[in-house]
Amino acid sequence: xxxxxxxxxxxxxxxxxxxxxxxxxxxxxxxxxxxxxxxxxxxxxxxxxxxxxxxxxxxxxxxxxxxxxxxxxxxxxxxxxxxxxxxxxxxxxxxxxxxxxxxxxxxxxxxxxxxxxxxxxxxxxxxxxxxxxxxxxxxxxxxxxxxxxxxxxxxxxxxxxxxxxxxxxxxxxxxxxxxxxxxxxxxxxxxxxxxxxxxxxxxxxxxxxxxxxxxxxxxxxxxxxxxxxxxxxxxxxxxxxxxxxxxxxxxxxxxxxxxxxxxxxxxxxxxxxxxxxxxxxxxxxxxxxxxxxxxxxxxxxxxxxxxxxxxxxxxxxxxxxxxxxxxxxxxxxxxxxxxxxxxxxxxxxxxxxxxxxxxxxxxxxxxxxxxxxxxxxxxxxxxxxxxxxxxxxxxxxxxxxxxxxxxxxxxxxxxxxxxxxxxxxxxxxxxxxxxxxxxxxxxxxxxxxxxxxxxxxxxxxxxxxxxxxxxxxxxxxxxxxxxxxxxxxxxxxxxxxxxxxxxxxxxxxxxxxxxxxxxxxxxxxxxxxxxxxxxxxxxxxxxxxxxxxxxxxxxxxxxxxxxxxxxxxxxxxxxxxxxxxxxxxxxxxxxxxxxxxxxxxxxxxxxxxxxxxxxxxxxxxxxxxxxxxxxxxxxxxxxxxxxxxxxxxxxxxxxxxxxxxxxxxxxxxxxxxxxxxxxxxxxxxxxxxxxxxxxxxxxxxxxxxxxxxxxxxxxxxxxxxxxxxxxxxxxxxxxxxxxxxxxxxxxxxxxxxxxxxxxxxxxxxxxxxxxxxxxxxxxxxxxxxxxxxxxxxxxxxxxxxxxxxxxxxxxxxxxxxxxxxxxxxxxxxxxxxxxxxxxxxxxxxxxxxxxxxxxxxxxxxxxxxxxxxxxxxxxxxxxxxxxxxxxxxxxxxxxxxxxxxxxxxxxxxxxxxxxxxxxxxxxxxxxxxxxxxxxxxxxxxxxxxxxxxxxx
Amino acid sequence: xxxxxxxxxxxxxxxxxxxxxxxxxxxxxxxxxxxxxxxxxxxxxxxxxxxxxxxxxxxxxxxxxxxxxxxxxxxxxxxxxxxxxxxxxxxxxxxxxxxxxxxxxxxxxxxxxxxxxxxxxxxxxxxxxxxxxxxxxxxxxxxxxxxxxxxxxxxxxxxxxxxxxxxxxxxxxxxxxxxxxxxxxxxxxxxxxxxxxxxxxxxxxxxxxxxxxxxxxxxxxxx
Lengths: 952, 223
Known about the structure:
Structural class of chain B: mainly alpha
Low-confidence stretches of chain A: 1-5
Helix content of chain B: 55-70%
Oligomer: heterodimer
Radius of gyration of chain B: 17 Å
Number of strands of chain A: 33
Strand content of chain A: 15-25%
């Protein structure tokens, strides 16, 4: 209730008494026309149609994209139509330059979420004012507070906690709705400089492909989506690109017009399967058996590319029969090189140390075989004398693999997978005989317990056929153009001192940053935090929910790994009792399996919980202070640099934030200032961060802003100037080209993240692993090759040194059905999930898809409510009965908010997310347990359930 | 002495009807904004209820019949109650606000609603205030516009052409905007089991708007 021109009491009292002179008193509207103009308009007004006579015009057509949104499509350029400070609608713009005439171009990009984003950002569910909790957490009783009140309270609490417990007294729940620009930089910069740790979320949501890390030394391999057009055989495995890669899916369709065959491998007849030439429907969780059976066909029928296998894979490398570990030079040579591996030369009849090995002389490392090299793929009768004098026999990885594959003949695999043996053979032959073949692995794969085994088996198919590192070929997920400037702006205090023309200085800063992060990491494992501190330990470590063939309990594996110090970034006891929790860019109550248990654990014990959020959601309801953040059109941002489109996307600020909301940068800058002032006021200076690093609290604002030099605009300029991927691109040029510019290169860091390629050219599709296949640069693995044999003790102990199939676990108890899940077409995770305009285009409420036979035997008809249940609990949803779902499968698309379910419990609440024990491995060559690289991930997609009709 | 007691007796004697209408729209716009501490005092003292009672009664005694005036003095047992209730109902309920004060929420097409509102505002020389950053379909925005139109009406003197235009605009705007969605809003409000203050206030506003629609329709005819 604000009355800017008059005291409200006087106004009301006076008005009642007839003692107020009538004045025009506007606060939400403002006059822009002189009195005579208004009078003239009034005289001309006949009926409402008159207001439509003036042609509608826009005040501005801005540029934007959906920066703080976890949309893996990697950016779409939109024109934003602005009037009266409101974005009314968006329209796809088409600024994408043609790659070359041999591939289709990217124009336009977008989907229905992007086209309705303005509706989301102005919807009634947006928070417009800072709110403070009044009732109990979760009770949903709030009142407004001013920004001053909110920031002062948070600053006071922060200084108290930091001065008593240091950074370990607080932590940040971090989601994936960050940008790759000022918003993310603000979060990292602010909390790193306070020594407060942040949860890593890639594995926590289950997206981390540890099988890819283990095999390829890269958790996110991939290329640009126009390379899909060049394939002859596109295998969509676990994915649903027609629904979830909407701006890029046309390349698949166009490849089909070109003559490519499209295969879709999903249990359900998904929207993508509908458009495939061949749909293969394995029983959920048996995909590794399918891939391994295909590998067996490829090997048995000699369809594999032997020279490629010898050069690019670890399959010729020798393995000791006694330890089942690789033969290392240290085994047989005094002072031998560690991590140096060998193959058997069939002509020289001797062991040759592979020049690809990580431990080989660094300046001589290469995959290239010399003319007189003749590695044997399956040497017979090879023995070696160890330093100890012991004689052991050796076998190649290929030889062991052949033995292992004996279990996966087509008939046996058919029994496991439910796929006919002829279909398996046909699939294997077609894949191997295609000139180029892609396996596009969807993000559902790592969300099953044995997803890593599936990835390893799939990559084996691609490697046997020589597809990895081939245009239009290879095992792909998604990759990124690494933006060095973004990382430097986030982590380097004096980033404004770095000069674009001083690459040595930039590199030194990156090295220094890496060293500091190694000593005092900002991020810790969100997945393990859930396990240790969020009330899920008993389920996640329950042996009954895990692999029944494990020789020990999961807890024993975990204890051993911790005792050995194998797991970096583990949230230890120092983080067990946080006093303050911040939440940014996500909704951990929803994106965590059993996330609702946070309410009774972390969120129950904390003294203060602050949520920087766009709207009220499950996590916000359990917080204390809500700080409303600006939407993507209301702040400057950078879309994260997924390489499907090899274009940098700028999201410009085209309107002011709604209500009193503020950008993440502005919020944290204001808070940094308050913290510094509060510290000065209380005489608190040096405090210690998480892991003990000292810092000066009174310099918080100075450090956050790099002495006042850093702001969102400057941060974007630094990203552009300091990143080799954006060399030559300016903010001005971006704005002139609708916010889009083609990446111009890849960074040194990008060699790891950007598909491990240096070969990116602006007029060619991006192809992963060309460095290895063409330049013969070793792979970033211990052997320097695509590594299928993993000789870490855990892998050996559980029988996973080579990819194998393991039966899906009974996660959740002994129930007959498997709960599968997929990304939805209708939202970006939980954002847009409750937007009316999109709900009207679908069922509009949570729904499971079930097979008619399963529904019939349970007395459930279409559109009935069903109770889906297991040991962990239940959720209630509508049932859609469809033959597109396999018998034994219950499918739900993700992202529904808990409040949309009858009873308020969502599907993730009953997913126990058992840990994969091999993901505890670490300190073993490239198997280094670290966040975002190789760590324990959450999973949900082989949860066991049953359902029954719900009676209200 | 409370604010209500300080008031002079009869509003109608001191103010002419066109001005009263404009003041009433302004008063309702104030009443539907977030109840900060001063607003709570105004409510508890009865100043709001009394102002509305006096002005509405002066316009038409029927408007103040069967009104639970005590509800309009009831800000709840403590300072938080009404604020919490306002937030729950209109801004941040469990699954979004229960019954937002934005007309576009109640059907008819969000964009079409917004466009027509802006067209109305622009036609009469108004724009959205940049500093408040509120939507054009917020109830207070719509009431401010009616405050503006009736202010113009009060100033128009004997300029019949201008008066007719302003009244036609009120007729059309009332029917097409606040009265098109306020009944739906009130139903949603009641379903949310709110504090009685908001039920009574909304009912009173609806009654006033309907009477205003009848008035201007009688003067300028049906659309």
